[in-house]
Structures are given as C-alpha cells and as structure tokens.
Amino acid sequence: MRMSTSAQAARLVRRRVATGAAAAIFGLGVALSGGLTTAASAADATSYSGIVLGVGANETQRIVTWYSSGDTAQKVQVAPTASIVNGEFPADAVTVDATGAANTSTTGYNRHATITNLKENTGYSYRVGSEGNWSPAYAFKTHDFEGDYDFLFFGDPQIGSSGDVAKDGAGWAETLRYATAANPDIELLVSGGDHVESANNEAQWDAFLAPDQLRQYPVAATIGNHDVGGKSWEQHHFTPNTDRSSQYYNGDSATRSGGDYWYIYKDTLFIDLNSNSYVNPADGSLGGDTAHVAYVTDVINKHGAEAKWTVLNYHHAIYSPASHSGDGDNKQRRKDFTTAFSELGVDLVLQGHDHSYSRSYSIKNGQKENAAEQPGAADVYPGPGGVIYVTANSASGSKYYDIKKPNAADTDPNGQRPDPLNPDSFWYNSVQNQEHVRTYVKVQVKSDKLVVENIRSGTCAAPNAAVEKGLSCTNTADGQPVGSLVDNVTIHPYNGDGQAIQVNVPNATGEFGWTIDGYNGLVNLGTAQEHDGWYFEANGKINPIVVSDSRFSLAPWSISANVSDFKDGDKTLAGSYLGWSPKIVESGAGAQAGAPVVSGYDDQGQGLAVSRGLGAADQGHARGTAKLGADLDLKFPNEVAKGSYRATLTITALSS
Fold first, then answer.
1. Strands across the sheet with 429-433, in order?
2. What's the pLDDT at 497?
3. Which neighbouring-strand residues pair with 102?
4. What is the mean pLDDT of residues 46-70?
5. 3-class DSSP state for residue 328?
6. Could you tell me whether strands 348-352 and 309-316 are parallel, antiparallel, or unpaired per DSSP bridges?
7. pTM for this one?
8. Phi/psi of residue 242, nearest 5 degrees
9. Are the CB atoms for 313 and 220 separated by under 8 Å?
C-alpha cells in the first residue's frame, strides 16, 4: 500500500485572469485556447510534425517527442491551461530544453524532452519549438495520483499492411476516436507494437501519428517486428528507464531500435520488452530471452514492492490463437518466459502480433494452473504464480489473422494441442475470437482486482480496410454493435494464506482552492454609454469563481482581487474607475460576500485598483463548495480617448 499525505500550512495562491475595457468597446476576461499556431519568423522557418505525448517514469512526468525540419535549439513549453490568457502562455511557463539528432530514415531531425513535476488533477497545455516559432498547443490532464484508474490497450495498427495507407489510417483514427470518447477518463494508451507495415516509411508513420489523441493522452509504445530494421520507431517514441544495450534488441547498431523499459503508474509496475530479440548473440554472450528475463527480474526485485500490480507488455504473443501461434520463436518464448514470470509474481501480460483476440487461462510455469477453470469464465482466481496472457486484435482493420485449429496429435507441452474443455480452442486459451472487426482492450485497475474487456470499435462496415478489400466478416451490427463486449473478465489476485487489509488515507488536512467556473471566456462589458456628456458607464459580471474547502481544520479563508489599469496601446484608463458588488451565486463552505466597492469616479477613491474582498469564511465554517460572483460597474470621465481597452484582474486566495 502506498499512502500520501501533506500538511497544509498558510499559503497564498495567486492566479491571473485577463480583464478589459474600452471607451467604445469594453471587455473583461480570458479566452483559453487548446491549439494556437504562431507563424515562423523569416529567420526561423523550422516546422514541427509527429508530436507525441509519451508516458514518463511515473505519474508526474510526460515525455514529448517530435520531428522538426531544422536543426535548431528547441524546447517544450508547458503551463496549466487555466493560466493561458487569450491563447498566450504566461511569462512563468516552464520550458524544457530538447535533445535529439538527425533522422536516419528521412530528412529532418528528431527531438524529445521530459516534462516533470506535474501536479495531480490539473489540466496542462504544451507546445514545442522556440520563441517566436511554436507549434500548435495541445492539452492533457493529470488525475489523482492514487487509486483506481483505467487504461486502453491496442493491437497492431500496422498502417500500410492492407496496401492502402489512407484506409488503414482511417480505421486506426476511428478506433482511437471511439475508444476515448467512450472512455474519456482513461489515463494511458498502451500499444502492442507494429505501428506501421514498413519501419522507415514515414508516410505510414504520418498516418499512425495523425490522431490528436496521441497528443492528449500519454502513450506507452511497444516495438513490433514491423517496427524494427530502422530507427524511426525510436525517433518517434522516446521511452523512460530504457536499456538500449545490444542484448535487448537485434540488428545492426545503425538500424536497431527500441530496448526494454519500465515505468510505474499509480500502483502498477509496467515492464515493456523488445521481443524482437529472443536468441543469444553470435558471440556467445547472453542476450535475447535470457537478457529479457534478467531485466524483468532486476526491475521487479528493485521496484516491485512499490506497486500493487505487475503488468508486462511485449509484441510477440506466446499464447495466441492464429497464424503466429505455432511459430518456432513463440514456442521458444513459452519455454523461456513463463516459469520466470510465474515466479516473479507477474499478474497480466499484454501482447500483439497475431491480429486476433485471446485471453488465456491462468498459466503457471507454462501450464494451465487449474484444470477445472472453465472456458470464458467471467471471474478468475489465479493462485500463486498464475498469470493471465491477453492478445489484442487489430485496432485499425488493416490485417486480421484467422484462428487456427488445434492439433490433437501434438504432444509438445508447449505445442498446439486442443483444450479438453473446448476442443476447438488451444489448451491455453479461455477465450478466442476473430470476427474481422476492429477491437481494443480496456483494463480497469482497481485496488482488489483487474477487469479486462475486449470491446468492438467497428463493425463490418468501413473503415475496415481488410474487409473493404474482400475479406469476409461475421459481425452483425445489430447484434454486435460498436461498443459491445467480445470478452469481459475480472481477475482476482491471490493474497496468500492470510487476509489482505487495505485502507485509503485521504489528505490529512483536506484542501482549499479556487477555479474559474467552466470556460474562462472574455467578460465583455459592451459599449460604454455616455451620460449627459459628463461620464461613460459600462456594466457586466465576472466569470464566477468556485471555492472548494475540504480541510478538517475549518480554518478561515478569503478571496480578493485587484485590477490593473486598462490599456489600449499607449492610451490608459485608471483601474480605480472599476467597482463591483460581490454576491454568493451558490452557497457553501461558509462563504459570505464581500462589501460593495463603488467606482472611483463616484467617491474619488481607488475602486478595485487596490485589493478588495470578493468573499470569505470565518473560522469553524462548514466544509464544502461555494460559487462567488460579482456585478461590475465601470464609470469614467468622458474625456477618455476612444479605443478598446483591456486590463488584468488578479485573484488572490488566502487561507491559514
């Protein structure tokens, strides 16, 4: 069990909200943007492509990878989305220098940079490039760093394998679109490898990388056999904690790509292997499967205690139902991997390669653990050393492999004999499926179980390149529509001879904070109205502010604000002319509205040019949430020059 608590001392939180006014046209507020393009200057015409948001070493990190047309100094810039004003990143936005080199498979250069120190439950925006020449901005959000979460697993998009890159790309994009729309709060996208048909075909990579979901959710990439033979995979996916020693991948050093890597996300230790290397090097040194087992053993011994679950991911499915199930290299991996995985306490293994779906029985030391486990069981209870192996079907529809028939004469313990409980399936598989429709796998990671679902993301209809090109299809949209389940299983862990006891510990003091309610759009005061030739006046409302206080201390809090001068070029309108009338829009958290403040035009005072209270709560108030608002009154002399004026309202939260 991992627990996190934090003592909360007095703190001052400052956030900036844009405001504005005009003698002719007035406005107050901020417009947030998820994708702004800044034109390249004549001196720097570098363009950026293939941007990918990759998984980091833990929840607080993301690795961003991209291609650039120029060999220039580049960086990632990141800021909380709430701090972006009119599409402009704030002056204190974090920048991280990028590293990279020239591309080996195409012209241009590759870059990557690691974003660190992310906060939980926060929306961020980021862009790549350099000052004056940034890429569009993309947004992602972090979640609670403790507790349950879901991730999605995708098998073999293999863009280009149908012979039609556009159709393959359309199927892949549609799976990502549907899967993330149906599961908007998923936290990781995990691949099973074979992203493209030809390792160095950048047109295929462009189609694979086209969906914006790969810039909005962290991607944990796996290298497949179609991804090796060139450096493109590695140039598009820079991974954390990676061992790129020669024993972890094969081929010439100029073209080999990938490596073994690991990361921890919440309570899960993920280990990703480059299964393209499975034999010892010609020089007799240990490599391939032996090296992979050593790597997994070392990582679990060092970091297994930090996690509740251990999940392995590699491309070559060792317990799959279709064309590759009888391959000699996969039979060899059944001998090399399975006992080690059982002894190390691996819970789940995710695989690709065979373009069909399967879920194994609980496998221990290379054999079915419990002879009585029934085919298709909705709940499984692996004993000590029991491991579930899942093979993902095609996520793009570019290629499907049909399920093979078992061989009753096969006496090899690692071979293809039939299942005594279901003779049409291999002995090791509880579920096998191939309908020639796109699917993906959803994994729900909970404190006491794993839930694995294989979900249809398509039907026989387009986009489904292999079927469009003549392959048969057994799916019926009426009976098996998009979103329907192919398989659903709950994996209950083995807790030893005793009883596992768990407790979730919340933040010891609770939390206090504020946010803008909903979209932080421009507060437009419209056109000021002239009054008897003496003064102009305009009115509006601030964007409501939501205050949340869950602290056990019931300490007092207050929200205040002050406004800068309004400006239009070199023309100025004093902020003291702005007044307001605070109000409680929704009661809670002991909130009381601040006192009204009149425009400085009326009393020759300072109006909102000095800090004024919007709302507050006394010691001992109830915990909860409140929504604060205020009516704005801007009144100023009629000699102010015509223009469109804007200012900045600074919100300050104070708690003890």
1. 261-265, 268-272, 309-316, 348-352, 388-391, 357-360, 429-433
2. 67
3. 109
4. 97
5. helix
6. parallel
7. 0.76
8. -100, 130
9. yes
